[in-house]
């Protein structure tokens, strides 16, 4: 599938050609330098006026004065590219690179051009230029072209690697996100199929089934498959913790479920060592049992293990709020929001902390932001509903927080 040309073509023509005009004049004879600059200036003006044919005449005039001027060839190549004459574009771009092989942008446009022509050389050109490009719009376009090429070749791993780079480069780009989610979904499905074929009766297969059931809201079914996985391989990493989470989520207020979850967490620590997320689950159980001091100690331990653990930050903040230490709680709540900007629980508690700290304006801003986040999440849920996709339940944990305690 060819990636969408998500940058408006007229805009691309403008910035790409004008960027190429930034080359030096080293190839030009000293006696013609002024004339060449004049022709290039006129060409730039014609391009701004959207008159590429007149610009072509100016670039040809430059070549008449300096037959080895790389910028003239490069610009002629770019103009031909956007006019759909990929053969002519390729010829001019190659001439520019033959004179100056260091022209990364020219190499990038040639790679895109060769892909349009179905030339196998496109891959190497795109790979080399993608690794060196610093211009964001062109790097995005080249990356999309390269990802599309890898996908056509059936190399989902390479496609996913490129898309990961593009998401990092422009995380709010709708077209990048669209292709990334599709590639990741295909890669996940492909991996799942391989696992099902190679090890249908394995503990990992049972774990995958359990995870899918958790995402679909079937906690009871998930617990059953986690237990089947443990029967097959009791020492499989991650299993005891995930089972503990599912058991506790299924019946958080039940003493038997709490005790069972604790046993699974202890098994997890015994086999894999202590981790912040495990300490947070221990803390949650202690909080549910009314042992707030013990819960606080657990959250502090989790924070020591991983200062970026959101549940640890939230847990410490909630305890500080109970101790009427709103100002200290604000510090941890801001950390939690930095780690998870859409966390409704963190925003709700932060609004409450601001109110107690005599900061009513900030409290109102947080409540307004919380309202917007809720609306956004509702829209996302509706979209998933329209696609008939089950998601892991994302309850709005306010005004009742994750530990089942009513917020004051």
Rg from Cα: 30 Å
Mean pLDDT: 88
Strand count: 0
Q: Could you name the CATH class of one domain?
A: Mainly Alpha
Helix fraction by DSSP (H/I, runs of at least 4) = over 70%
Low-confidence region ranges: 4-28
The CATH homologous superfamily of one domain is called Tetratricopeptide repeat domain
CATH architecture level-2 label of one domain: Alpha Horseshoe
Beta-strand percent range: under 5%
Major beta sheet summary:
none
Q: Distance between termini?
A: 54 Å
Q: According to CATH, what is the topology of one domain?
A: Serine Threonine Protein Phosphatase 5, Tetratricopeptide repeat
Shape: elongated
Task: List the total number of helices.
Answer: 20
User: What is the string of helix and strand elements?
Assistant: HHHHHHHHHHHHHHHHHHHH
Which secondary-structure class do the elements indicate?
mainly alpha
